[in-house]
Amino acid sequence: MQGFKQIDGILVHFYNFAWLKLFILKIWENISKFNAKNPVVTIGSFDGVHVGHQQVIAQLNAIAKKNKGESVIFTFSPHPVKVLHPDKEFVLLTTIDEKLELFAKNGVDHVVLFPFTKEFSQKTYADFVKEVLIEKLHIKTLLVGYDNTIGKNREGNLGELLKLSNSLNFKIAQQKEVRLNDDSLSSTQIRTLLSNGKLLSASKLLGYHYILSGTVVHGQQIGNKLGFPTANLLPAENKFIPGNGVYAILVETNGTSHKGMMNIGIRPTIENYANKAVIEAHLFDFSGNLYGKFIKISVIRKLRDEHKFNSIDALRAQLKKDKIFALETLHKEFGID
After folding, report:
1. Domains contained in the chain, number
2. Quick one: 114 and 207 in the same domain?
3. How far is CA 97 from CA 27, 31, 48, 87, 181, in A?
4. Which residues, in sequence order, are bridge partners of residue 251?
5. How far apart, in Å, do the first and last CA atoms of the chain sit?
6. Is 169's pLDDT higher than 70?
7. Which percentage of the chain shows pLDDT scores above 90?
8. Are the C-beta atoms of residues 70 and 37 closer than 8 Å to each other?
9. Which terminus of the chain is more exposed, N or C, with fewer CB under 10 A?
10. Domain final residue, candidates 145, 180, 215
11. Does residue 47 belong to any structural domain of this protein?
């Protein structure tokens, strides 16, 4: 995982943000060594860690603080769909690394990345609670979704968990239903907005600008010939990609941030390269070699759809206009020149 150090079997990431607050997030892949003070646990995928998830995390942290304990998010790796339906196509708003960074930013103390298997999927909710949550994590409180269920055949509903909590001596708290402007929040809703180029609406639901991250790979050097060299991004498997088009972006690499623009699409103007989808980021204020480097792209606004131009010169002229538009957009959004 990007940026994580392994210490005594515990994966620890230190985040030092611009406002100089230090977050320490402990990530557990081996729960036999799990150790937390009065753990308050919630279970879920948290894809996107959107505004709704952030409110759940705030509730989790508040309960932990009230009980002089520590907050714990229990999630699965790999994603259950990948294990139970390996041939099914699915996409996620956040990679594991992106999700962990967002957990840290929201003040979570611990994350359990539990290995999901077909065998585990057959475990009853009662066995899961007893064998994993009680015997391994030693939970004091379980924060459950307002309409979520756990265990085989989803039999572990709120009523059943309340009965179990009495016999196993732990507390149950129920998540509040999270809505924004009287509308429910969902990762599906956010993906639809991103597909349709509605970045402003998507960022309001996410609580941050959508992120694309990955390793820079070699391309065909087309950007260099156009006067706009690009970093070709290789995203993680199953990562959701916004709709084709040109975007204003901010790119973080080696601890610094750079303004830029990005094209997602098939480059229809370029002969012999059309129909091969790529993600290409051009950094305005950067010169250097990014091949093999890990970068994080914050997707700010969609500038235009992808078009086929009559000539390379026409495309080059449009890219110059795109740069001006991107800089204006970034100035309006962040006040940066």
Report:
1. 2
2. no
3. 11, 19, 12, 24, 30
4. 258, 297
5. 34
6. yes
7. 61
8. yes
9. C
10. 180
11. yes
Give 133's DSSP letter: I
Whether 12 is in a domain gets the answer: yes
| Domain endpoint, select from 180, 214, 244 | 180
Predicted model pTM: 0.88
In this structure, the answer to whether residues 129 and 230 fall within a common structural domain is no
The answer on 202 and 163 residing in a single domain is no
Same domain, 128 and 69: yes
Mean pLDDT along residues 57-83: 94
Residues 214, 132 share a domain:
no
Residue type, 63: I
Same domain, 216 and 302: yes
Looking at the structure, tell me whether residues 253 and 278 fall in a common domain: yes
Q: How many CA atoms lie within 13 A of 239 on its CB side?
A: 19
Mean pLDDT of the chain, nearest integer: 86
Question: Do residues 76 and 132 touch, judged by C-beta distance below 8 A?
Answer: no
- Domain encompassing residue 88: 5-180
Q: What is the residue type of 172?
A: I
Structure tokens at 127: 């066995």
Q: Can you list the pairs that 237-241 forms with residues at least 24 positions away whose Cβ atoms lie under 8 Å?
A: 238/79, 238/82, 238/90, 238/91, 238/92, 239/91, 239/92, 239/95, 239/212, 239/214, 240/91, 240/92, 240/93, 240/191, 240/194, 241/91, 241/212, 241/279
Q: What's CA 284's distance to the chain center, in Å?
A: 25
User: What number is the average pLDDT over the span 261-283?
Assistant: 80
Contact 254, 293 (CB under 8 A): yes
Which carries the bigger pLDDT value, residue 82 or residue 8? Answer: 82
Nearest alpha-carbon partner for 74 in 105, 124, 109, 23? 109
Regarding whether 21 and 70 lie in a shared domain, the answer is: yes
For residue 85, the domain's CATH number is 3.40.50.620
User: Which pLDDT score, from 0 to 100, does residue 6 have?
Assistant: 46
Residues contacting 266, CB < 8 A, separation 6+: 244, 273, 274, 275, 276, 277, 278, 306
254: left (phi over 0), alpha (psi -120 to 50) or beta: left
| 125 within domain boundaries | yes
Q: How many CA atoms lie within 13 A of 176 on its CB side?
A: 12
Domain membership of residue 190 (yes or no) is no
Looking at 133-212, list the stretches that DSSP marks H as alpha helix, in order from N- to C-terminal side: 158-168, 187-195, 199-206
